[in-house]
Description:
single chain; 210 residues; alpha/beta; Maf protein; 7-stranded mixed β-sheet; 6 helices
Amino acid sequence: MNIEEESIKKDFQIVLATKNLHKIREIKTILSELLPNLDVLSLLDFPDYTPVKETGKTFEENAILKAIDAAKVLNKWTLADDSGLVVPSLNGEPGVYSARYAGENATDKDNRAKLLSKLESLSEKERYAYFQCCMAIASPNGLKKCACSKVEGKLTLEERGGEGFGYDPIFIKHDYNQTFAELKEAIKNKISHRRKAIDKILATLENLNS
């Protein structure tokens, strides 16, 4: 066992490479159920750190960029998420630009409004969409693992529900009749793209925390 591994086993702490309050809450809630002894911080705990620009062309590239940079600068183990909504009939929009679809300072509602305006001319079949999430784990020495998952469904033509965030009010997962924003948090956290990605890296986190 090297010094790095020994320090992890004694006091395992990981930083979520995001300042998004919704993501922090969701990921922390999921991890608290799966790994209750895990000490989870976020970039809100490091106000002097400036997040790296998301210059990747894919969710995976952006997740890796964020994880490696934060881990190196903060000298801590880091978990980075990059996720978004993909509508194949709209050439993959909003994709990696999901959070800034309507502009750099756009709100979730702004982004949904832009997308809804484009959905009006599409058939129900063309409103097929999926959420994708990539999760990357990095230590100060570099990338350890990255995994991606998605959930498929369709988009509605009007917002429904007051839960969730982002595009949740207009996304209905296959085999469900409620939008992600209508589902209870506990249900969404068991079936979401983010949960599926976390499940794929869970073994890595468990090994670090064992």
